[in-house]
Write a structure and sequence with these properties.
Keywords (chain A): Activator, ATP-binding, Chromosome, Cytoplasm, Hydrolase, Kinase, Nucleotide-binding, Nucleus, Phosphoprotein, Serine/threonine-protein kinase, Transcription, Transcription regulation, Transferase, tRNA processing
Protein name (chain A): non-specific serine/threonine protein kinase
Strand content of chain B: 15-25%
CATH architecture of the largest domain in chain B: 2-Layer Sandwich
CATH superfamily of the largest domain in chain A: Transferase(Phosphotransferase) domain 1
Subcellular location (chain A): Chromosome; Cytoplasm; Nucleus
CATH class of the largest domain in chain B: Alpha Beta
Oligomer: heterodimer
CATH architecture of the largest domain in chain A: Orthogonal Bundle
Enzyme class (chain A): transferase
Number of helices of chain B: 11
Largest sheet of chain A: 5 strands, antiparallel
CATH superfamily of the largest domain in chain B: ATPase, nucleotide binding domain
Distance between the termini of chain A: 52 Å
Shape of chain B: globular
Largest sheet of chain B: 5 strands, mixed
Number of strands of chain B: 12
Strand order of the largest sheet of chain B: 3-2-1-4-5
Number of strands of chain A: 10
Shape of chain A: globular
Pfam families (chain A): Pkinase
Structural class of chain A: alpha+beta
CATH topology of the largest domain in chain A: Transferase(Phosphotransferase), domain 1
Order of helices and strands of chain B: EEEHEHEHEEEHHEEHHHEHEHH
Chain lengths: 224, 347
């Protein structure tokens, strides 16, 4: 079977293929030779399972994520739903900023932040921790004249009710936005505002944990 | 032509370097080495630096065959670092600046590492992994800043290694990390340790506590379940060093790879004291080859803190027109990499 390689991501290679006649995306977590074989096997299996589990959990909670069609732990391949028209949130933000006037772009991005925040809030209210929230791991899929937001790359995800993990998840997102989209510093605060409306009864506890994680990062002594 | 003298003393190394237009004229350094099982404390480290610094200034000028009047700018490490040792460098820099009537520039330590790495290896626009005793950051340049994409959310990787070396009483000469590296070579027994990656960030404190327990079972009052006693007893120091290195370096390579995929970059540059670890370099090289990328790394002369990197970064700043009023010649313990406006790069 010849496969068309789409991209080499951080976790593995992405191919276009088909599963029972249906076009799908195949994610192959190839053996990373730099890692000790035992560690590599452990990490690969753990992440494949995490990805398959989180996808099911998200769909059950009404959060869009690629459906996992099939997984093969022996060949390290995961067969999943493919969104051919989707682009990453990173591309979306960059295109919005470069093609629209400043006011229009901001209006469009604020709406985008609201949606992202609500989805992450909903995910956390279902105790799903994504583990790698960056704008490369959020897809924007056009639908009619509008778009829907799809979360992808659940390899680092897990199920946990603890506020600590939710706080770290938010911190990872904040850092990713600051470094990747430094020209739009307002993104995170709007995402957070929408997040608070959707994250359920732990809102205060998660927010104060988030502040705590943030302070941990900043207070750290940095000696050359 | 910019001829710069740089003074570095943010941690336990005191170094002076002289550079003229990218050409190394002098690079001298002394390290404060503590007995096995002990770390370096600010007060004693500052005392060591005070005793060494003037001799180093003289020998660097001699090595470079220069007179003070040949210098265009005096650079010193403004931060981040420990305050007392930083102050030693700053005070000498201020004094020399007034004495010889030469402009003064404060340099961010992390920027020094990055610029030195780029100069030595010729890397153009790499993802930078900056790993040392006090810092663990994955950095990429964009729009006049070095932006931090990933970093440790608790202790630095070098700090984790140093503290483990202290627990098993390894020598601090020439450095604890070097001795761990050598000891690790005599083992290939992999012990499972926690592996903590959170997006592009990492955490080391849990691994350190876990391996502390393995190295000295029963020392800490243990609330959690501990691996069985007999299993613990036959782990040698070498096994622990090997497994610690394999685990934490795999984490570092992984977050670097994530940053490469996220930013669409193909080059990696490793800088900082831990960067001269050959196992880390080897692992990073394999990862780069798998992606069709390229690794740039340097040896201990430039990886480990040195005065030259401060001189070079300062010279670049000076050349691009950055000046510092004398009133601002202070030091600061916390000085983020992304606070510095990179005026010398136009890409």
């Amino acid at each position: 079977m010849s496969l068309e390689i789409l991209k080499q991501g951080a976790e593995g290679r992405l191919y276009l293929g088909d599963f029972k006649g249906e076009a799908c995306l195949i994610k192959e977590r190839f053996v990373k030779k730099y890692r000790h074989p035992e560690l590599d096997t452990q990490i690969t299996r753990q992440r494949m399972k995490a990805e398959a589990k989180a996808s099911g959990r998200c769909l059950a909670a009404g959060i869009l994520a690629p459906k996992i069609l099939h997984s093969d732990l022996n060949t390290h391949k995961l067969y999943m739903e493919y969104f051919n028209a989707a682009k990453t949130a990173k591309q979306f933000i960059q295109e919005t900023v470069s093609t629209q006037t400043e006011d229009e772009a901001k209006k469009c991005l604020l709406e985008f932040c609201k949606r992202i925040g609500e989805i992450i809030g909903k995910m956390h209210s279902n105790h799903i921790i994504h583990g790698d929230l960056t704008t490369s791991n959020i897809l924007i899929n056009p639908k009619g004249g509008d778009y829907e937001v799809i979360l992808i790359d659940f390899g680092l995800s897990h199920y946990n009710q603890a506020t600590e993990d939710k706080g770290v998840d938010l911190y990872v997102l904040e850092r990713a936005l600051l470094s990747t989209h430094s020209e739009q510093p307002y993104l995170f605060e709007h995402i957070l505002a929408a997040y608070r409306t959707a994250c359920g009864k732990d809102e205060q506890a998660v927010l104060s944990k988030f502040e705590e994680v943030r302070a941990r990062g900043r207070k750290r002594t940095m000696i050359g | 032509m910019v001829c710069a003298l740089g003074i570095e003393g943010s941690a336990n190394k005191i170094g002076i370097g002289i550079i003229r237009d990218g050409k190394v004229l002098a690079n001298v350094r002394r390290t404060y080495i503590t007995p096995p099982g002990e770390g370096f404390l600010p007060k004693e480290t500052a005392k060591h630096h005070r005793e060494a610094i003037l001799g180093l200034v003289k020998s660097s000028l001699k090595e470079a065959q220069l007179k003070p009047s040949d210098l265009d700018v005096i650079c010193y490490t403004k931060g981040p670092g420990m305050a007392p040792p930083l102050l030693v460098g700053a005070i000498v820099a201020r004094t020399l600046s007034l004495l010889w009537d030469i402009p003064l520039l404060g340099v961010n330590h992390c920027i020094g590492h990055i610029e030195m790495g780029r100069l030595i290896t010729g890397a153009q626009n790499p993802i930078v992994l900056y790993v040392s005793g006090g810092n663990t950051q994955v950095i990429a340049y964009s729009n006049k800043r070095y932006r931090i994409f990933g970093e440790t959310i608790d202790i630095a990787v070098g700090n984790c290694l140093d503290r483990f070396a202290r627990i098993i009483k390894l020598s601090n000469d020439p450095s604890p990390g070097y001795n761990i590296e050598q000891l690790a070579k005599s083992s290939n027994r992999y012990i499972k340790l926690p592996y903590v990656v959170k997006g592009m960030d990492v955490s080391f404190s849990g691994i350190l506590s876990y391996i502390e327990d393995l190295a000295e079972p029963g020392k800490r009052q243990n609330k959690r379940k501990r691996p069985q006693e007999e299993e613990v007893n036959n782990y040698s120091q070498a096994d622990l060093c090997y497994s610690l290195q394999e685990t934490i370096f795999a984490m570092l390579v992984e977050i670097t790879e994530r940053a490469m995929a996220h930013c669409g970059s193909n080059e990696v540059l490793i800088v900082g004291g831990v960067g001269c670890n050959e196992r880390l370099q080897e692992m990073m090289r394999i990862m780069c080859e798998e992606r069709g990328g390229k690794l740039f790394a340097t040896d201990e002369r430039y990886c480990i803190d040195n005065g030259l990197m401060i001189a070079h970064a300062g010279a670049e700043m000076f050349r691009s027109g950055t000046r510092m009023p004398f009133e601002e010649a202070f030091v600061t313990q916390r000085f983020r990499t992304d606070e510095v406006l990179v005026s010398w790069r136009d890409d």
